[in-house]
Write a structure and sequence with these properties.
mainly alpha
């Protein structure tokens, strides 16, 4: 799979899943307590994460590209909804137990799942390509020997 195809996979997954999140946010009511404010720094960090997710499509792995797209969907969904609503993110999905309530949205779920998928895919790629990793330095080998005792 070429880089352009992996980039399309990343961007396509992000756009499709973020659209689902934005549709849910637009059509489900959100309790007043379930809005979370986001700062300007959060907006900048979100943009950096989106660029990083797109950059992961350079890795020769469609699985990593798709996982980055799922993670990017979470970031994009919350970023778009925050910017459209004065940096307030609605969380229309709630779970309540007794006096405690938790508000979240699909973007939060996509970010969590994308992170889990991405870490797993990167670990698999590292193991598959371990011969391409840099050789351990002398001090690293000594440290490993010490921990094995």
């Amino acid at each position: 799979m070429r880089v352009s195809e992996r980039l399309l996979l990343t961007l396509g997954a992000a756009a499709a899943l973020a659209s689902v999140d934005l549709f849910v946010k637009a059509n489900l009511p959100t309790a007043a307590w379930a809005f979370h404010h986001r700062s300007g720094s959060w907006v900048v960090l979100s943009i950096v994460l989106l660029v990083g997710a797109a950059a992961l499509s350079l890795m020769p792995s469609p699985t990593v590209a798709f996982a980055a797209g799922v993670l990017g969907a979470g970031v994009l969904g919350n970023l778009v909804s925050a910017r459209a609503d004065g940096n307030w993110v609605p969380n229309p999905l709630t779970i309540s137990h007794g006096q405690y309530s938790l508000g979240f949205n699909l973007a939060d779920v996509f970010f969590f799942l994308g992170d889990l998928l991405l870490v797993t895919a990167l670990m698999v790629e590292a193991v598959r390509n371990r011969e391409r990793l840099a050789a351990a330095h002398g001090w690293e080998r000594a440290l490993l020997r010490r921990f094995r005792l």
